[in-house]
Design a protein that fits this description.
Elements (H helix, E strand, L loop, with lengths): L12 H21 L1 H8 L3 H16 L4 H29 L1
Helix pairs in contact: 3-4
Length: about 100
Amino acid sequence: MSRQVKIVLPTGSPFAVAVMFFGNGLVLASSFSRMPGIRDQVGAIPTHLAFALVCVGIGSIVPLDRALLAVAALVLLVAILAPVAREHGRELVKA
């Protein structure tokens, strides 16, 4: 008499979410560790690189509810404009 053993693998939504979080973390960790090299390769200044990284954050906020999206957009706008205004102020003081 032979018995069949059924192996159950994790499937469905929780497993898919876990795989996506792991993959996203792996990609972001490997790219963030290479940021100085990427910045030098493309010839970007830190402000441009920061703007590109903020755009990555915007991409994760897009699916949110409209009210949360409005608050997040305001916060990101301030986060983008504050360093630019600071740099512009330094240039005015130097002139």
